[in-house]
Peptidase M15A C-terminal domain-containing protein (Pararobbsia alpina), 94 residues
Amino acid sequence: MTQLSEHFGLVEFTQSQTATRRGINNTPSAKVIQDLTRVAQLLESVRTLLGDRAISIASGYRSPGVNAAVGGAPNSRHLLGLAVDFTCPSFGTS
């Protein structure tokens, strides 16, 4: 497993039930992986601010095919690996 930071791996940012179900490739480019690494490092700071509680990633990188399949905006930052939807279950979900 490729680690992007201490607590976050690449698979957490790229896993997609939609991609799996529809057979859509959701593999990021090297540039996107660099940006996901920056996002993972920022999430480490968020995790610290939340009292070092675990963060669950709901959506990270989306390939164009995945983004279209989920109805994402054509200019979504998820396409670039610069957006992440997450929760911190032990802190709260909203």
